[in-house]
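Deliverable D4.2, example record:
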Amino acid sequence: METLELYVIANKFMAKYQRPCCILTKVDDDGKISYQGSARGCDKVGVTEFKDICAATGVTLFVAGHQGAFGLGIRKEDIPAFIESTNEQLKNMSEEPLYYVDYIYEGDKVNPQNILDIADMNGFWGKDIDESLIAIKDLKVTKDMITLMSPDKNPTLKITLPNRISIIKFGSGQEEYESLLSDGFVKMDIVGKCNCNHWLNNIFPQILIEAYDVTERVKYLF
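Output generated by the structure prediction step:
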């Protein structure tokens, strides 16, 4: 695999899981096996000197580049020692995912035009400008607001707000859908990206879920 491809994959893994990562491929040099490729630190969890952390293991063949993105090589037999050493050095790394958001909305008071305006800026996101995220706190979700679309082919969770904004989670399933159903409501904190859904010459605001947390479950008593 080409170095550029490894770099791109490492970026994707780092962004998705918010952890430093190493994407390496097997290299056979006359029977001497090593793994070489690209590594990425993760500023969002405070790992700003991942290159030094890898070098401090004492078992790397090379570390070449800057602290956040660099080339890395390790002999096959040294991989366990490398993992043990980096795990020890990173043992105090935060376990909580961290999201930088541009808007925080309370409950279902989400501004549809804001969502459309941010979605319209899609062409600006790139290497040095992260895609904008928004957060929704304390959203009360009742079962009539939730739909599982395409359950047999491409299960997609959809939460529809009173103002018709759709909150979408791809790659969902029946179990997740049922876990959110309630005889009262579930209260959720949601982080997502802004999106435009074009349908029959109309444009509808959507929020694509990056992460969510159910903070409370309340049943109605009659």
